[in-house]
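Predict the 3D structure for this chain.
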Amino acid sequence: MKSYIDEDFMLHTRTAARLYHRYAEKEPIFDFHCHLSPKEILEDVKFSNISDVWLSGDHYKWRLMRACGIPEEYITGNADPYEKFLRWAQTVEKSIGNPLYIWTHLELKNYFGVTELLNSESAPAIWNICNEKLQKPEFSARNLIVKSGVKALCTTDDPADDLACHRALAADESFPVKVLPAYRPETALHPEQPNFQAWIVKLEEVCGQKAATLSELENALEKRALYFRESGCLIADQSLLSPNFTCGTREEAESAYCKALSGSQLTAAELNAYQTQLMLFLGRLYHRMGFVMQLHFGVLRNCNSRLFYRTGPDAGFDSTGDGISAASVAAFFDKLNRTDERPPTVVYSLNACDDDKLASVLGCFQEGSFPQKMQLGAPWWFSDHRDGMRKQMKALANTGLLSGFIGMLTDSRSFLSYARHEYFRRVLCDLLGSWMEQGDIPSDESLIGEMIANICFGNSAAYFGLK
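Done. Predicted structure below.
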């Protein structure tokens, strides 16, 4: 039987294969949005077994295991790591068609040299092979990053974080990869969350000042943004559902903030006014700081309240939400634009129906002083697969500049997730290779090859100012 993943996997034409191997395969990686732990990178952690590095914290896998009827004990519970791995193997053999099936086998091949399919029968042997290799020095957290060809990565960090690990890593000349913080005031934007009041108290302690009013909160956030910039930060990030940026006054936002501090639940209109005004402040702040602003829209969080209270957040109970309106996005950028305070921005939507709409709106705010200043980000989360990638790239090509696209990111907590970059690059080369063979674009390998290399690395490095 032919090996499942060979060198031309997912490359359906000779042109696609040539493009991938010559222009994409060896390009370095700038993972500008991930959830890796800077503490684990600093400590160069070693993983005791494959479940530790593969299943811990990976809610993508957890959702799929639940779909296969695996009891929660083997997912987020206290079951033995080997038993959890066996249950994951049972899930994999049933998951053909899901991108996790491909990612799983890419990771086994790239990091452990395992080309056998993972299933119930092969699981015991694969468990032993992987665990034996994980004991070797080259399988520590730092070495896995280096082995993946990563030049720089940006973690996701709360404004109240001390960034001590980032500063220590920046001073460590033995590690060649830049590990940069990303400023993410997520809790500040979500007063509906139960930890909001406690987080405000923590922010006040870190800043040494009160945040009893909206203006005081903004002062505290600006103080922390300055600290982040001094620590190498290039990027800010936040996620929202589908806010309406066309309405909501400053006075309404101030009132809503005081109400949230008192522990009262905000109405939809109050929450909207608060998020609108705070996001306008943050957009202007990022412009002053020189940060790229990342906006994630369309996520509906913690849908399964019973299991959410049992497992906590980021455990697989989030969903695609409603798309954001074009009028809302346009109003937000226009308000920032009126005073020339609009930072470079990457917009992601969890609702794939938004691709064409967002690409069109972003095109209204491009400007000559900054190439491709407004970016339609890579497919996010539930769209992070071949169909979603092709759809997003076609929308970008049809309404803007695919050649200016900043490419892929992992958005992951796993040190093995860099195989997703290979997956993306194969999809990219397969798409452009098919267009070349059909005569839809020029059959000029150097022209298309340079475009591919830039999408894989060059564009993102230039866009974020990576030195």
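The longest helix spans residues 268-289.
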